[in-house]
Each structure stands twice: as structure tokens, then as C-alpha cells.
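Fig. S4 source data, part A: sequence.
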Amino acid sequence: MKIDVFPHILPARYHEELVKKGKKSSIWENPAVSQLDIRFRLMERSPDVLQVLTLVAPALEMLVSPAEAVELARIANDEMAELVLKYPNRFVAAVACLPLADIDASLKEAERTITQLRFRGIQIFTHINREPLHLPKFRPLYELMARYDLPIWIHPTDDPRYDPKWEWINPLQNSGVLGWPYQTSLAMIHLVESGIFEDFPNIKFITHHCGGMVPSFEQRIWGINMMKGPEGLIKFENLRKFYNDTAVYGSTSALMCGHAFFGADHIVFGTDMPLGGNSYGFSLDTIRSVEQMDIPSADKEKIFWANARKLLKLWF
């Protein structure tokens, strides 16, 4: 068994409402993200994989007004709940989409999805309308999730502040190639620096793409941190408290780097399915990359399913 904690889906009614509002995204052009028949055919290539549904980017607050986002989040969450109920052999759980521009509404929707729909966590993005995640206004959301002892998925997002005149660099800066790993790393460091792990000792975050740049730049982060003096810039060990998925598109060496930094207990299987590449993603490559890791078989079991089962409280 394998539990994919970071596949993406575009529910039909949610999509229809966004189209009515004139919204579109190149990500949505991948038919497997919205068409279940195609998705299920792809899943048949690895029938032992169960998916935990997460809503596909872009972030809802980047698409519509705060008031519109409240209703759209509810539509998306209800649809994902229906899919989990209808296809339990495909979808083992779902993660809540929230109208994050309105924190009070987000708290209510998080409560509803956890208590009524049995969702296993919430998804946020690396910034919320350009506001960093460590701001005090977002603390009630972290307090809520710490109380429920359920994880917060962090998906990277573009930073629209890049100057559009620099067209030659934007495809790298403002995309999943380099921009997203950078945004993930920055969000992680900001959260640690702000004392989130001291204020909420049991809080749990899941990053996409195996913690971005953090594992690769471990020594640089540590070295610059030490240059700041006795107090340091951040409590370095708290960076190891993040949980991190395996969606590095089949790179075993990247996973080994993540394993060395975070440890086997803090890596969870995630594929980014069906995104990436021209053949509906790198799910099979991701499986192979984990299988090829030079680690004990017990560690691979943790990564493939055991960590997710414990983290998400999936008692089956």
C-alpha cells in the first residue's frame, strides 16, 4: 500500500463556477486533473496507491474576492468529500480548501470540514495575497490545527511582484522550476523564525517538493545562522520538524538529501499527480525513486504509507 498525500484535483462544480467568473489557468488544461475517467486509468498503473485529495492551484484568494472565495471553498470541499465517499478504494481522505483572505471564514470552514466532512487537514500557500505565513493574523488558524492535531499542507505559489519586463527570467522565477522551491524554503524559515513551533509544539506542516531548497542548503543556512550571533537567526533544529513529500519528479538523489536532513519519520509519499511532464505526471517515477533509495526497507514503508497513516490518523 502507498498513500499519496499530495495529488491534485479540480472538482467539476468548482471549476464551472470559476469559468463563469472568467477565471482560467494553464494547470487546469491537464484533463486528468478534472476528468475522473482519465485519472482512474492513470491510477490503474499503480493500483496499490490511495490518494489524499488536495485542490489544484492557483490559490483561491488569488482568483476571486474574499466573499466569493467563501462560497467557492465550500463548493470545492463538498465535492471532494463526495468523491472520498463515492470512491473509497481510490481516495482515502481530503484536505480542505479555505478562503484564506478571510481568516474568520477560514476558521469556520476548517471546523466544518474536519468535524462534519472528516477532512484530514487544510491547505495553505506559501504566501496569502503577498502576506507571509508567520504574520500574527494567521495564528488562530495554526492554533486550531494544533488543537485538532492535524497537518497543514503548504503548497508553493508564485510571487506576482516580479517585474514583468524581465521576461527572460520570469519562467524560472515565477514558476515551479526555481520560484516554487524558493518560496517554500522562505516560508519554512519565516515560520521557524517567528516561533510557531514554540507556541504550538505539536503543529504539523507538510511541504511540497521535499522541503524546497532547505535540505540542499543545510550548511549554508546553518552557517549564516551562526554568523548572527549567540541568539542566531532561527532555531535550526525546528526546520527538521516539517513533514515533506517526495514530489521531486523521480530524483532519488534529491530524496536521499531530504532523508539525510529530515529523517525517515518526516518524509511522506506525494507525487503531484497528475501534474508535471507530458504523460500526466511522474507518479511512477516517484515510486521508483523511493524504491531506489539506499535506506532500510522499514524506512521505505514509513515513507510510502506508515507516516501518512499516523499523521492523518487514518485508522484502516
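Fig. S4 source data, part B ends here. The chain has a mean pLDDT of 91.
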